């Protein structure tokens, strides 16, 4: 099945490019991206991760990065295209709330990130994502400088109860039961993609994206051609144009072959 040859393809990282089982990018994916670049197709990252922790991509070169779910976008060389931080009023409310009902939170800034404290849920996620050890700092540190993203360790019920009260200026992007990403309202992978396309003068009709988690849904609904990984959640598969095989079963390579792109 052929489609209009895309000029830009966006890839989520965890569960899409990188296996949760091996913490590696499959060789077939590395080969596929190399083929795309040889054909002049630009390849971009679109992730919930901070740019600080996209060091699990090996030697693959990308043309730009949509990070923290669209809140921070850069070129390949690190030039900032777009940045939209969590409102200061929300941060102040969060710091006050933590004094009476504490929950773990990763605070992501432009050049560093830190945790307020660690529990079993945090340890589970850091292991799942193969994250480095993060420094522990007081919640008040969040008021020093811009916070681009809050990784809030709240379940779905807690999120719905707590976030409207203390983070009214934020949207939530969840792809795991143990936590949600809180980011400035209006930010999403869709937002980030639009910023990248504007910068590189590429039309939305010439785009494609791959994803597997709930935070990929805005991106997959937005691009011209969307692909859900075989290991994706059902709600993600439901919005995709095509469901490929799992990340550990050559999903990206198989989809690009299916569409006649490589």
Short description:
It holds the Pfam family Hydrolase_3. This is Cof-type HAD-IIB family hydrolase. The chain is 29% helix and 21% strand.
Please explain how this structure is put together.
Helices cover 29% and strands 21% of the residues. The model has no long low-confidence stretch (mean pLDDT 94). The protein starts with 7 loop residues before the first strand and ends with a helix. The protein has helices spanning 27-38, 88-98, 120-128, 156-166, 189-200, 217-222, 234-239, 251-258, and strands at residues 8-11, 42-46, 64-67, 72-75, 80-83, 105-108, 113-115, 149-152, 170-176, 179-184, 207-211, 225-228, 242-243. The protein has two domains: 8-83 and 187-258, HAD superfamily/HAD-like (Rossmann fold), CATH 3.40.50; 88-184, 2-Layer Sandwich (Hypothetical Protein, Haloacid Dehalogenase-like Hydrolase, Chain: A, domain 2), CATH 3.30.1240. By secondary structure, it is of the alpha/beta class. The strands form two sheets. Strands 5-4-3-2-1-11-12-13 form an eight-stranded mixed beta sheet. It is built from eight helices and 13 strands. The radius of gyration is 18 Å and the shape is globular. GO terms for molecular function: magnesium ion binding; phosphatase activity. This is Cof-type HAD-IIB family hydrolase. Pfam families: Hydrolase_3.
